[in-house]
Amino acid sequence: ISQSSIFTECSSYLNADKVLVSGFSCPRAGGDARAVFCCGFQDVKYCCDDPHSFFPYEHSYMWWLSVGALVGLSIAAVVLFAFIITVCVLCYLFISTKPRSKLDTGLSLQTSRSLTLSLNGCAGILQGVFSF
User: Fold this and answer.
1) What residues contact residue 116 under an 8 Å CB cut-off, 6+ apart?
2) How far apart are CA 55 and CA 48, in angstroms?
3) Among candidate residues 16, 57, 65, the one with its CA nearest the CA of residue 39
4) Secondary structure (DSSP) of 55-100
5) In sequence order, what are the beta bridge partners of 61?
6) Dihedral of the CA atoms 20, 21, 22, 23 (nearest 10)?
7) What are the respective helix, strand and coil percentages of the chain, to the nearest 5?
8) How far apart are CA 21 and CA 42, in angstroms?
9) Using the 8-state DSSP alphabet, how is residue 8 labeled?
10) Which residues form the Shisa N-terminal domain (predicted)?
11) Nearest partner of 38 among 49, 29, 19, judged by Cα
12) How far is the C-alpha of 25 from the C-alpha of 97, rounded, in Å?
């Protein structure tokens, strides 16, 4: 059987806009003679030369889809980077503008002379008790 005698029927279908597209034979008149198979999905059908073909578009369409995805991911990465830098700057400003002095608890941390003397006296007593 020669390839020119092979043909396939694509049945009628409703496209994405719900418009009825009437059935047709592959290869189509004026089309590629090698496109003898009916390919596609329920809402788009076309003649192709590979029965396992899924998309009626050339590879350049997929390339543009990839470029669009890369542009979108690049924009998302820049926004995420700007967010992280903003958080870091705000944290630095929060930490650097904190008051350096500690809060006054109402207790004096300086030792007075009488306290020092009494502590020295206690140390002397303890030294005498524990000396051998």
Assistant:
1) none
2) 10
3) 57
4) -SS-HHHHHHHHHHHHHHHHHHHHHHHHHHHHHHHHHHHHHHTS-S
5) none
6) -130
7) 45, 15, 40
8) 11
9) E
10) 9-53
11) 49
12) 78
Nearest Cα residue to 44 out of 9, 17, 66, 6: 17
Neighbouring C-beta atoms of residue 8, cutoff 10 Å: 16
Distance CA 35, CA 4 (A): 10
Q: How many CB atoms lie within 10 A of CB 47?
A: 22
Residue where the block lists tokens 């329920």: 42
Tokens of 61: 């369409």
Q: Which amino acid is at 118?
A: S
pTM for the predicted model, two decimal places: 0.37
DSSP H/E element including 20: strand 20-21
